[in-house]
């Protein structure tokens, strides 16, 4: 597994994009009931606020540096440059490589319309991909019987990779709760479903490098996301600044001693 570095209270995996793809495909091939989280600023702040969610991230097999600030800080802590490993980029890369290796995939979450668009694109671009199933669960808590039926259907389809889009932190908690029940590598990729389906556009690469993707999404959904991005991003900067300021006096004290 890849080395992890501490960003606030969350242990973020580090490595090249290709190393993440290879590690995820190996987890899928092993059928070890693993799960992968894609951590942006919102997720890291949520883990700082909620100890139970922090445990969910701590126990993940991989936590990719999905957001630019998270990637930069993880690299700085580790003493090397670290690029983003975003779910929106992982999905097409993993599907392409899964098709090449003969590994199977399943999509769980979002809506029937989005899933239909995902399937149409995958079949058009990757005709050899083993797409063994999809499921759009209702937007409410499932009954125990429904939950058991969904797990049974996924296991019957027997995927190597299970892509999950239930929104943060629900999808991460769902994966953690189903470790040991689902025989696949689960990946919480949320918004990546809409992007891969062609229902939401991404900013150009130059704008992503300037960390402007959050502003674009805020412009698309201001009512739903204003608190997450404006309040949460500000809180992240404050918490990181406080952590760095308290770290420096401690480092000086150790050096003096």
From TrEMBL:
One Pfam short name: Glyco_tran_WecG
What's the Enzyme Commission number for this chain? 2.4.1.187
Among CDD domains, the record links this protein to:
Glyco_transf_WecG_TagA
- Keyword Transmembrane helix found: no
Q: Which UniProt keywords apply?
A: Glycosyltransferase, Transferase
**Which positions carry the signal peptide feature in this UniProt record?**
none
Q: What class of enzyme is it?
A: transferase
Q: Which InterPro entries match?
A: WecG_TagA_CpsF (IPR004629)
Q: Which GO terms describe its molecular function?
A: N-acetylglucosaminyldiphosphoundecaprenol N-acetyl-beta-D-mannosaminyltransferase activity
Protein name as it appears in the record: N-acetylglucosaminyldiphosphoundecaprenol N-acetyl-beta-D-mannosaminyltransferase
The scientific name of the source species is Hymenobacter caeli
